[in-house]
Amino acid sequence: MRWPNFSVPSAADDARRAIGARGGALRFDEFMSVALYGERGFYMRSGRAGRRGDFITSPEVGPLFGAVIARACDSWWRELDSPDSFTVLEVGAGPGTLARAVIAAKPACSNALRYVAVEVSAEQRALHPAGVESCAVMPTEPFIGVIIANELLDNLPTRLFVFDESWREAYVAWEGGRFVERLMTCRELPRCLPAEAAHSARVAVQDAAAHWVTQARSLLTAGRLVVLDYCTSSPMMCLRPWREWLRTFTDHRRGVHYLSAVGEQDITVEVALDQLPVASVVATQAEFLIEHGITAMVEEGRAAWQQAAAAPDLAAMAMRSRIREAEALLDPAGLGGFSVVQWCR
Ligand SMILES: C[S@@+](CC[C@H](N)C(=O)[O-])C[C@H]1O[C@@H](n2cnc3c(N)ncnc32)[C@H](O)[C@@H]1O
Q1: Is the pTM of this model over 0.85?
Q2: Cβ contacts of residue 243 below 8 Å, gap of 6+?
Q3: What's the 278 CA to ligand 1 centre distance in angstroms?
């Protein structure tokens, strides 16, 4: 007896369908969009940050990162003369871990604070904590406050260009039972592409990230946009092996080529700072966290642990954990080397 085919549709099926609908090839950013955010895309099913997820981000290291962000929010709130209503809009909020830690840190601005968490994945929105306004898309009403995006821009769909005697744009087609890359000439080349490059050099053209920054800034009546991410530049992309800056992840491991395992792995691209609107301040994450008091918070944690070490309770353990968390958050070869890019208004 033959069993009926119970195979469930996948993101790969969706990508194949989209390729057909586009006459045989899908631009790379459209392909990335289906793979990550289509109905069966990576983030729309189970993909996410966290120990039980696929990769660790700064908020997922532990509550210290959120506690420092809470302090930063206080200083930004005071800078604006402590308004009665102060919105923190976090975009790409994942399961709400940063929101949870900021609220738990009880910042001085708590009474004025309206925390809005924007996350496209319904599965992750369902995990957002109480006290947070959870939504799928950015609000449209301008406000006073701060917009924070931790590791969002690297996940926005990007266009991809390859130097093959001249710059050509990467598309994805379906041939011989697999996804393949097709290079096509582009009528108007993006200005960030250098005139010359080595054969097969690649550059991600991050129109969506630049557009998002412009849109986010326009929402602020007063305040700042704070983006934390791993960053590079278009010329550096050209010079470095592309697999260093265009990566895939799943289950806490590097994934396979982005044309394989479609929808089953994250696709992430370092952010080319030269392609974004000019920022007011750029610092490393380590510099930013030190500016906002991480060193004193670690010392406070160490002292609290030493006092309670003879009969430690959960609170003392959490204070001790600050020491290890800070090591990870400040590591210049890791999270500490990320960029914190701010646009002030
Ligand atoms: C790498 S994860 C980072 C999650 C969280 N910020 C953290 O640091 O742990 C990126 C998140 O952004 C979400 N995302 C991507 N594009 C988005 C958009 N346009 N609006 C809201 N969320 C988005 C994804 O679904 C994913 O949960």
Answers
A1: yes
A2: none
A3: 23
CA of 283 relative to ligand 1 center, distance in Å: 22
Q: What is the pLDDT of residue 311?
A: 86
Alpha carbons within 13 angstroms on the beta-carbon side of residue 35 total 27
Q: How large is the average pLDDT for residues 150-155? A: 98
User: Is the same domain home to 84 and 126?
Assistant: yes
Domain extent, residue 264, equals 27-49+159-205+231-269
Residue 5, Ramachandran bin (φ over 0: left; ψ between -120 and 50: alpha; else beta)? beta
- Name which residue sits closest to atom 24 of ligand 1, judged by CA: 92
Q: Compute the mean pLDDT over every residue in the chain, rounded to the nearest whole number.
A: 95
The verdict on 145 and 163 lying in the same domain is no
43 C-beta closer than 6 A to ligand 1: yes
- Find the range with the poorest average confidence among 1-15, 64-78, 95-109, 228-242: 1-15
Tally the domains of the chain: 2
CA nearest 24: which of 252, 182, 165, 214? 182
For position 50, what pLDDT does the model report?
86
Please give the distance, rounded to the nearest whole angstrom, from the Cα atom of residue 311 to the centre of ligand 1.
40
Distances, alpha carbon 19 to alpha carbons 25, 26, 30, 176, in Å: 5, 5, 9, 14
Do 315 and 191 belong to one domain? no
Do 34 and 164 lie in a common domain?
yes
- Mutating to test ligand 1, I would choose from 42, 44, 100, 155 the residue with most ligand atoms within 8 A of its C-beta, which is 155
Q: For ligand 1, is residue 119 a contact (CB within 6 Å)?
A: yes
211 Cα: distance to centroid of ligand 1 (angstroms): 16
Q: Is the CB–ligand 1 distance for residue 124 below 6 Å? A: yes
Q: What is the distance in A from the centroid of ligand 1 to the CA of 313? A: 34
Q: Is residue 85 part of a domain?
A: yes
